[in-house]
Amino acid sequence: MREARRRNLYSTADARHIVMHEMGELAMHQSVGGDRFSPLERAYQQAEQDFQRVDSAMIQAVVSAYAIRSHSDFVAEVFAALTLGRGALRDDPEIMEAFERFGGDRLLQWTQR
User: Fold this and answer.
1) How many structural domains comprise the chain?
2) Which residues contact 3 (CB under 8 A, 6 or more apart)?
3) Nearest to 104 by CA among 45, 3, 30, 52
């Protein structure tokens, strides 16, 4: 995980990162509902189109390369980062606005340290 973080593949170097990423996706799924999480649903497709208009270079530089794969991976990567100690992301207004807009708004309560 340290090497993956050094290469900016993931948002943390923590050994628990992959588990927290998956927990973030599960929490997002549970909080936004199936129509906003399933790639076959219009709400998901619209969110994904909106996400593609966000500055992917900025997201990759600030969060991770994995975070630009989809809006749900973005939310999961930010969730993992916030829960595993990258609290400084809270100070980035673009990242936090996108996190909340794409499904992380209801997850913030679990990321407070």
Assistant:
1) 1
2) none
3) 30
The whole-angstrom separation of Cα 1 and Cα 28 is 23
Distance CA 73, CA 56 (A): 13
Query: Helix axis angle, 17-32 relative to 71-83, nearest 10°?
Result: 120
Span 38-82, pLDDT tens digits:
778 888 889 999 999 999 999 999 999 999 999 999 999 999 999
Continuous segment of H or E residues that includes residue 50 = helix 42-52
Helix, strand, coil shares, percent, the chain, to 5? 70, 0, 30
- Domain holding 43, by residue range, is 2-110
Q: What integer best gives the mean pLDDT of the chain?
A: 91
Q: Which pair of structure tokens corresponds to residue 89?
A: 């992301």
Q: How confident is the model at residue 15 (pLDDT cuts 50, 70, 90)?
A: very high
Q: Dig out the tokens for 27 from the structure.
A: 């929490």
Does residue 102 surpass a pLDDT of 70?
A: yes
Do 81 and 92 form a contact (C-beta atoms < 8 A)? Answer: no
